[in-house]
Amino acid sequence: MRLxxxxxxxxxxxxAILACSAxxxxxxxxxxxxxxxxxxxxxxxxxxxxxxxxxALGTIHVIADIEKKKSYEQSSLRTLKQKSHTTDTTEIIxxxxxxxxxxxxxxxxxxxxxxxxxxxxGGYGQSNSLYLRGFDSKHTLVLxxxxxxxxxxxxxxxxxxxxxxxxxxxxxxxxGAQSGVWGSDASGGVVNIITKTxxxxxxxxxxxxxxxxxxxxxxxxFGYANxxxxxxxxxxxxxxxxxxxxxxxxxxxxxxxxDLNWEKDGFENTIVHVKGGxxxxxxxxxxxxxxxxxxxxHFDGGAGVDAxxxxxxxxxxxxxxxxxxxxxxxxxxxxxxxxxxxAKVNYGDFKRSFYGGYVGRTYEAYASDELSYIGDGSLLFxxxxxxxxxxxxxxxxxxxxxxxxxxxxxxxSNKLGDFITSQSLRFDARDTFEDKLTFxxxxxxxxxxxxxxxASYKTGFLAPNLYQQNYDASNSLEAExxxxxxxxxxxxxxxxxxxxxxxxxxxNYGGWYPNDFYYNIEGKSRFKGIEVSANYQLSDILxxxxxxxxxxxxxxxxxxxxxxxxxxxxxxxxxxxxxxxMNIKGSYVGSRHDTNEVQTGKYFLADYxxxxxxxxxxxxxxxxxxxxxxxxxxxxxxxxLGRSFYVGTRGSF
Length: 653
Prior knowledge:
The structure is a single chain. This protein is mainly β. It has one domain (5-652): Beta Barrel (Maltoporin, Chain A). It is built from 8 helices and 33 strands. It has a 22-stranded antiparallel beta barrel. Strands 3-8-9-6-7 form a 5-stranded mixed beta sheet. A two-stranded antiparallel ribbon has the order 1-2.
């Protein structure tokens, strides 16, 4: 198997990888059996049939990824429609893209998408803030195979820095308020990470990688599948000495000095992942999912403050954090006549050791039924129960340690010739705050085969979490509400989107200890901007370019910190031969100020990756991160990686 052979030749259009990025819509709540059949297609066909299909497509893996982007009907994220049914601005990052572009972590991969930026409090494993069209991490719902990974005991949504890229089939991103489908945590958007499913028979792959800062990564994935059942096991071990999380602030002596003798803050991550299923019949399937992770990240005493691991500068304890994450899911999917049924029970357990310890848990059970009716019409109806618990917060227990949400939702979509419409409505009955009714509507018109325009309007909400409710919150603390619209025009190789979103009653933190508290800001924060993405293929070279302009202001008209006004992402990919492939990508972050008004933007970064197929099933790769060794800070007083080198090998069987 030559991993990248399919990118070259008459069957290949690498441009399709990104051209289809805006071609899906994550709109409803169903896992289609057809998709499961596609994902484990080799389970339902002989090896000979699979080889014939691959030969006809002219590739092994790559075209499969392109075809998935073109023809998805469903995903484990509430109905992934075909491109012709899209009324949301969405993106897909495939596993092949992750490999050929040399993304080192999931934040780097997400940053390649128009409309997304991030900041980190240091290097590997340090806390990251993800900004989706300016909305921060707590407004973005993150899922792995449809299971929520937002930590109920925290303030910043999912700990996305702990999610590794190994064994990922694709990352699905939908932008804008999605509370009309997903409820409170999705007022800014949704990121769903889909893991790989094994082929028929025994199969697997092994990865080893070494790099700067004593980077060592070992991973393996093994599976077996037949027509009746499939199971896979993935293991990962990562460790690095890292860099100092803290660095001198811009106003400090020593800012920009790369040779400071500050203690390095290392990171370790171990993940075990098991998934599988049993096909009761051609139309019925039971499946399960288990993912357990243990991480340890060392951090510092704050912005610009170095601290040894066992220092106790402020009386909070040592400066390292052990994090344990456990995700479990069991479910049933079925297809009967015009109905597609999905029922699942999910559970997430999150533990952090620092500052006395944090323990959060999330339970969710839901069921849905999608009915296909006249023409291309579909109506999805579902209901569910969601419960969050915080059993420990900074070593203390809350008087009110749980909240639950009973919800019901419906999504309808229709295609009448070249005109597409979709509508979603959801009602949340919450036990701690007022009930909420949210919705979204969208319409699209295909002028020609390769030219379209679409628009949508969406509403959302974000309820105060248990930490905010219990930590000296004002008596009048209310849920945030959001609304906004987007307009897009595009072709297969170009997309232009204008968006305008607002948050009313944004939850904020104020006061001084011991009289600090949470409260609602009166008025509306506004996030508006433009996203442009384009790609062009010339012979064996593909150029890709995206641009984001963001105007993010709070209710008083002040610019919101840590969001860049402009962001540019560019990539050049080409084949030097049938076995040698290279990629150069660059990013420019425009003007961006921190909470103390310090400028942290206006810099350019470049990365380089080369892949070489040694044999049919072995690939070697080499990466250079931050080629020009640019010094910069995403957050004033926290370090970033300089020029870094990585070399690795991937083998499959």
